[in-house]
Design brief:
Layout lengths: L8 E7 L3 H9 L7 E4 L16 E5 H9 L3 H6 L1 E4 L1 E6 L5 E5 L9 E5 H12 L5 E4 L2 E8 L4 E7 L2 E12 L6 H5 L4 E17 L6 E6 L5 E6 L3 E8 L1 H9 L2 H12 L6 E2 L5 E10 L3 E2 L2 E3 L5 E2 L7 H23 L8 H29 L4 H16 L3 H9 L17
Parallel strand pairs: 1-2, 1-11, 2-8, 5-13, 11-19
Antiparallel strand pairs: 3-7, 4-7, 5-6, 9-10, 10-11, 12-15, 12-16, 12-17, 13-14, 14-15, 17-20, 18-19
Helix pairs in contact: 1-4, 1-8, 8-9
């Protein structure tokens, strides 16, 4: 629902009502703060980028968060578990695999359609007390002072001003609010596009995910409902545009040739889409009475399927910092206090650096076609499978369980 003009003072104003912004609003609910979520695009709109037919791989830590927030039964009902991950380099002898049984977990992660996850999040937001969803509403200006923040929101009925203690930029890699709060960002194009869609393989994926590196770009296959597979095929911009222009039969033959026969013959290709890929890194995670989370802080390449999960750990850490301050300050809590923000920035810095280095490194390593590099790459994958402890450590990072974890990422409710 929308807040009324006479009731525009909040503890926290969240810019962006996509998956990360909505999750933050829900995660904050136990703290009984007054929260506004401002989203520019109506959820049901065709051009809503957050809740489309793309698939998201939820890590173990994201699963635990949804469990702690009481949302997991609804999310898992619409999700497909990943119990095995197989990584290979087409035409080479090396491969690597991770197995849930070996890690003593029921699943390494889960795959959910963004549109379905969006419905769960939006319906849950509507039930939260003291939370207003202002949609459609676009933040056009932000003014920050030592005492308060002011946000101008343009709605269909005109502009109005919201005041709050803390502004959170959760409006994506091209965040306008990040710029308004004075935080710059470095964006480097990979000169690649991701072609996405889904198909029906002859052999059911059987809860197995695949990452296959090919000369035409890496192809990921994720298990989804109905024994189908969601694909993400990384290609050059020209190749991606051509892929969208092909007939279903032509595209099926092309992706079949790239991926191979591990899942048998492909058929019944769904709707295809494509989008450009880049690495985005905010120059800072905090400013005066403001903070950036999710893709506004770090837009990653999808090769390791870690972007959303990294953003969820941002959410969990910010909630932890605010909850800890509330325990100390009680009713005098100031969510925009510099100590809270500095604690958040210090906590998240290492995780951000690690994931950026990892995903960027994988992109460049598997994009190098030189013979010696290919040989070392495949020896590395064999070593991954054969050297004791390497696979377990890697799996722990992939599941988002490495390092100091916030309460929600451990499955512990805030209250």
């Amino acid at each position: 629902m929308s807040g009324t003009p006479a009731d525009t003072d909040y503890d926290i104003i969240i810019a962006g009502g996509g998956m990360i912004g909505s999750s933050l609003g829900l995660a904050l609910a136990p703290l009984r703060l007054r929260v506004a979520v401002v989203e520019a695009v109506a959820r049901g709109a065709e051009h809503q980028p957050s809740f489309d037919d793309r698939s998201t791989a939820l890590s173990r830590s994201s699963q635990r968060m949804f469990e702690a927030m009481g949302l997991w039964p609804e999310v898992v009902a619409a999700s497909t578990p990943i119990r095995k991950i197989h990584v290979s380099d087409k035409g080479r002898f090396g491969f690597a695999h991770i197995d849930a049984d070996e890690q003593n977990v029921e699943a390494l992660g889960y795959v959910v359609i963004n549109r379905v996850l969006g419905r769960v999040l939006q319906e849950s937001l509507a039930a939260v007390e003291n939370l207003d969803v202002i949609c459609p509403g676009r933040i056009t200006a932000v003014s920050l002072s030592d005492e308060r923040s002011e946000v101008t929101v343009e709605e269909e009925t005109g502009a109005r001003t919201l005041t709050g203690q803390l502004v959170v930029a959760a409006d994506g890699a091209n965040s306008a609010v990040r710029d308004m709060i004075g935080i710059g960002a470095k964006q480097v194009s990979y000169d690649q596009w991701a072609v996405i869609g889904n198909l029906l393989p002859e052999n059911a994926p059987d809860n197995q995910a695949f990452e296959r590196f090919t000369s035409a770009g890496p192809v990921a296959m994720l298990p989804i409902a109905g024994d189908r597979a969601a694909f993400v095929w990384i290609q050059s911009p020209d190749a991606a545009k051509e892929a969208l222009s092909l007939t279903d039969d032509e595209f099926t033959a092309r992706i079949q040739d790239a991926f191979g026969q591990r899942l048998g013959r492909f058929s019944k290709i769904g709707k295809r889409a494509a989008y450009p890929l880049s690495l985005t890194r905010a120059n800072s995670l905090i400013s005066r009475r403001s903070v950036v989370v999710g893709n506004a802080a770090h837009g990653l390449h999808p090769v390791a399927a870690q972007g959303f999960n990294l953003g969820m750990r941002d959410v969990a850490a910010l909630c932890d910092c605010i909850a800890d301050a509330r325990m100390e300050d009680g009713d005098s809590l100031d969510c925009g206090d510099s100590t809270i923000l500095e604690n958040y920035a210090e906590w998240r810095a290492a995780d951000h650096r690690k994931l950026v280095r990892f995903t960027d490194g994988v992109v460049h390593l598997f994009g190098d076609s030189r013979g010696p590099v290919k040989l070392l790459r495949n020896l590395g994958m064999l070593g991954f499978d054969l050297i004791p402890g390497v696979r377990k450590a890697f799996a722990k990072h992939t599941m988002g369980l490495a390092g100091k974890l916030p309460r929600l990422s451990r499955g512990v409710p805030l209250e």
